[in-house]
Design a protein that fits this description.
The complex is a heterodimer of chains A (537) and B (349).
Chain A lengths: L5 H40 L2 H35 L1 H35 L6 H30 L4 E4 L2 E4 L2 H5 L2 H35 L4 E2 L5 E2 L11 H39 L1 H8 L8 E6 L11 E6 L2 H7 L9 H12 L23 H28 L9 H9 L2 H16 L4 E3 L13 E2 L10 H32 L41
Antiparallel strand pairs in A: 1-2, 3-4, 5-6, 7-8
Chain B lengths: L2 H33 L4 H11 L3 H18 L1 H10 L1 H20 L6 H31 L19 H25 L3 H32 L2 H22 L3 H23 L2 E3 L9 E2 L7 H28 L16 H10 L3
Antiparallel strand pairs in B: 1-2
Helix pairs in contact in B: 1-2, 1-3, 1-6, 1-7, 1-10, 1-11, 3-4, 5-6, 6-7, 7-8, 7-10, 8-9, 8-10, 9-10
The chains are: A mainly alpha (537), B mainly alpha (349).
Chain lengths: 537, 349
């Protein structure tokens, strides 16, 4: 009767707003940790290049941070707005980690970051540094609480069914859900990978520019000879140190975090083969039971018909290793899992009004395999490529600068996107792979059979498809505009270099800007008469 | 009467009050960017009074929302889904406002600043109005069926109370911001803010007083009426203090007005958290909308330690940034880019 399908629109909205939010979040967490370490290095050594790095990367951190804050509110509100049946069903257990995230983590993050941004002069250096660490640790706890909530949807534990709703009976089980305990480090390493690529790409660009402009040259032994540029503020020898050190930190962080994601991902995979076998079968597009990992499968994955899929290249034994840690155990494919799911959870949705038009429809237990198969491979592929690139970058820059090649510089800059892609692909894989459930049933022997929920039952019954469409269009448009603005500002500050974050480096009056606001600060100094405003909006 | 749901009803009232108290003045300062500040320097003074604290203030909203979800999932689900479009407006307003604070000073042109000034002013206005409308409607009721779902289409929530609640929070926020600016700035802005405060107090508090009174006529009892009287006394005290240039006392008295006023409203509607205008049998109350005692108990333990801690470190923030800001403190805009970009341009290729 209605051409618009409220459920589909609500799912698109959740997907778009969440993937978008999770472009800002990993950069916030990863870059926050890196900046905190760098400021600690400055605090300990007093080397000027560490202060410059703190200021420059801190500035980019803040430009990005605010977008994560702004889009995070949408996440909390839309459970109630668009998914009221879901909220009613899970509220007793799912609401607590969200509330605790706000109370114990986000308050800390927001308040102490405000202190860090504005408190450069009001606070003693040690306390100022501590504020950043507290804010960064707050962001890590924030990730923990959100992942506890998400993990409960992947693997519900610690509850009992009372009057048709899961009621928390064991908070310890919820907050130490094994799904969360592996997903948290996996996500944090993923966030660090983003930060590593970010440092590497941007530092490469600046080293390249210094070479192109003839500031840095290469001696007969191939080693860099850092120079000074007279006409541009801040492009001195310390500036070279800023970029080469940033590049190396970035590369090392990228490699370590890839190793971290691989190790934790392996644990996570083994859990998922037990907790959501259908997700993992769909990740493999594996129809039949077997031991081989598909390197390339063709056929129409989207047809949702297993008979059309052919694994062209397969490595025997690897799938068994991913699932069970040996090379011979048969892993169940889609064809043998489907009957088990139908038997356990029914062949048709119940005739209940909360399913709307879908009441009584046949249930498709197979996630969209195009998404799960390629999502899984993009996650690993982008992650691995970024780590490999980081290793190559360390080798290329071992003598202290980058080659003059413009092509390589572009590769390094666009390589920044790879870890973002890996993060997004991983989340899309795990969320789409859980379908048709919004709360996946827990098949553990200790699991509670009735604790699951079909996505079809989760959407707000009282909200019209038109309202959902209005918000989908509005939020997507707003997000698109703000993405353009954020990237534009990041590019502006990146191109400006360290001086963009440190007015005090400007050694000459900065000229001819007709819009400059008259103020009491001296030319370029930007320093007020006293320390009321160490930083001003 | 159930103890834990009652405690959480009070906790959520405290969180909303904390939100209105703290974000009240930064929403108001945002609106005043367009109607009070006379030039860019004054706008920057306004911004920098709330710069270090607005984000921490906004977390009170998230915590109020999250706590409602955790403690009263059925209240959260019904209220948020019934008010779908107004909350969408609040979200968009908060997004633009937050980004505007951070991005306004990042490009040094008048046009760029003007756009973000509008984002701050309109974002603050719509956020305040929308939050006020939602709070008023949860006290006066929505057309909800037995499942707690809105009946009657996307605009069925609309009523005079929505407008009254919206104006109430907008008016209070503006007044609270004037009190805050009188306390936090120096020079001309300080004196103007105090003048405006004295002149506008009766007008700006009119809608919130009308809301509190109409709730008392609907659901009031002797002790909530007493709170209303005390609130009126606090408003009078705020006015008197402002006239005597006791800015700190005026700010605190207005804060007391807010605390007493919200207490009178939440106290009157208790134990109903969201009435249904269709049938009082469908009312959501602290009993039928709440989480289990186990969950509430867990949250109580965490909040008992967490909330005082939040209040302590936020108070410390205000102490760190306690000094008055004036036009003389505002540094020149930092124009780094022309030099570097011009150079990059000329050497390209």
């Amino acid at each position: 009767m209605d051409a618009l399908d409220a459920l589909e629109i609500a799912r698109w909205q959740f997907g778009i707003t969440t993937v978008y939010h999770f472009m800002m979040v990993p950069l916030t967490i990863g870059l926050g940790l890196v900046v905190a370490v760098i400021q600690t290095a400055w605090h300990r050594t007093g080397n000027p290049e560490y202060l410059r790095m703190t200021k420059f990367w801190g500035k980019l951190f803040l430009i990005n941070f605010i977008m994560g804050v702004a889009t995070g509110i949408v996440q909390e509100f839309q459970f109630g707005m668009a998914w009221s049946e879901y909220s009613r069903f899970v509220g007793d257990v799912f609401g607590a980690p969200l509330a605790l995230e706000a109370l114990l983590a986000f308050f800390v993050e927001s308040t102490f970051l405000g202190l860090w941004i504005f408190g450069w002069k009001q606070l003693k250096p040690g306390i100022h540094l501590a504020c950043l660490w507290i804010a960064v640790i707050g962001s890590v706890f924030s990730a923990y609480f959100i992942i506890v909530a998400n993990s409960w949807m992947q693997h519900p534990v610690g509850v009992e069914m009372v009057d048709g709703r899961p009621v928390m009976t064991d908070a310890w089980a919820v907050f130490t859900n094994n799904t969360a305990l592996v997903a948290v480090p996996h996500t944090l390493f993923g966030a660090l990978a983003v930060a590593g690529g970010f440092l590497l790409g941007i530092a490469w660009y600046h080293l390249w520019r210094r070479r192109r402009d003839g500031v840095d040259t290469v001696g007969p032994d191939g080693k860099v000879v850092p120079g000074e540029s007279a006409d541009i503020s801040g492009r001195d020898r310390d500036d070279h140190k800023v970029w080469i050190r940033s590049l190396r930190i970035g590369a090392v962080v990228a490699m370590i975090s890839f190793a971290g994601t691989a190790l934790t991902g392996d644990l996570q995979g083994k859990l998922m083969f037990e907790q959501q076998p259908m997700k993992m079968a769909a990740a493999e597009a594996a129809c039949h039971d077997g031991t081989g990992f598909s390197v390339l499968s063709i056929g129409n994955l989207g047809s949702q018909n297993c008979d059309d899929i052919v694994a062209l290249i397969e490595v025997p034994g690897i799938l068994s290793y991913l699932a069970k840690g040996d090379f011979t155990t048969e892993v169940q494919g889609v064809n043998s899992l489907l009957p088990q799911y139908k038997e356990a959870y029914g062949t048709h949705l119940p005739d209940n009004p909360i399913y709307g038009e879908r009441a009584g429809q046949e249930i498709d237990y197979l996630p969209v395999m195009e998404v799960t198969y390629w999502g899984f491979r993009m996650m690993i592929g982008f992650g691995g490529l970024a780590a490999l690139a980081a290793l190559v970058a360390l080798w290329i820059t071992r003598k202290g600068t980058v080659p003059e090649s413009r092509w390589l510089m572009r590769l390094a800059v666009f390589g920044i996107l790879a870890p973002f892609g890996a993060n997004a692909a991983g989340w899309i894989f795990t969320e789409m792979g859980r379908q048709p459930f919004v709360v996946a049933p827990n098949p553990d022997p200790s699991g509670i059979d009735q604790v699951f929920m079909f996505t079809a039952a989760a959407v707000s019954p009282g909200v019209s498809a038109g309202e959902l469409l209005a918000s989908l269009v509005t939020l997507t448009a707003v997000y698109a505009v703000l993405l353009v603005v954020e990237v534009k500002l990041l590019v502006k500050y990146i191109r400006g270099g360290v001086v963009s974050a440190m007015p005090e480096l400007v050694h000459a009056p900065v000229d001819e800007n007709e819009d400059a606001t008259p103020g009491p600060g001296g030319p370029g100094g930007g320093k007020p008469a006293d320390d009321v405003l160490a930083f001003a909006y | 009467m159930e103890l834990l749901p009652t405690i959480w009803f009070i906790a959520i009232a405290v969180l909303w009050t904390g939100y209105l108290f703290l974000e009240g003045f930064d929403l108001g300062v945002g609106m005043l960017m367009k109607v009070f500040a006379r030039n860019n320097t004054e706008r920057r003074v306004l911004l920098n009074t709330i710069g270090p604290v607005w984000d921490g203030n906004e977390v009170w909203l998230l915590t109020a929302g999250g706590a409602t979800f955790a403690a009263f999932p059925l209240w959260y689900a019904s209220l948020f889904s019934a008010l779908y479009l107004p909350l969408l407006v609040v979200l968009v307003a908060l997004i633009f406002r937050a980004v505007a604070f951070e991005y306004r000073g990042k490009v040094d042109t008048a046009q760029w600043r003007a756009r973000w000034d509008w984002a701050i002013a309109l974002g603050s206005f719509f956020a305040a109005f929308g939050v006020g409308a939602a709070l008023a409607l949860t006290t006066t009721g929505l057309p909800l069926n037995a499942n707690g779902d809105r009946v009657g289409g996307p605009l069925a929530w609309f009523s005079g109370y929505a407008v009254l609640g919206g104006l109430a929070v907008v008016g209070f926020s503006l007044l609270h911001a004037l009190a805050f600016l009188a306390l936090k700035t120096d020079g001309d802005i300080r004196h103007r803010a105090r003048q405006w405060f004295v002149r506008l107090l009766p007008v700006l508090l009119l809608p919130i007083a009308a809301w509190a009174l109409s709730i008392q006529f609907l659901d009031g009892n002797p002790w909530t009426w007493a709170l209303v009287l005390l609130a009126v006394a606090a408003a009078a005290a705020a006015w008197t203090c402002a006239r005597k240039a006791a800015e700190g006392k005026a700010f605190l008295a207005l804060g007391a007005f807010l605390v007493l006023g919200t207490a009178s409203i939440f106290g009157a509607v208790f134990p109903v958290v969201l009435p249904s205008t269709l049938d009082s049998a469908f009312d959501l109350t602290i009993s039928n909308a709440s989480s289990s005692d186990y969950t509430l108990g867990l949250m109580s333990v965490v909040a008992a330690f967490g909330l005082p801690l939040v209040i302590a470190y936020q108070a410390w923030t205000y102490w760190v940034f306690r000094r008055r800001v004036s036009a003389a403190h505002i540094p020149e805009a930092h124009t780094f880019l022309p030099a570097v970009a011009a150079r990059a341009f000329t050497t390209k290729g």
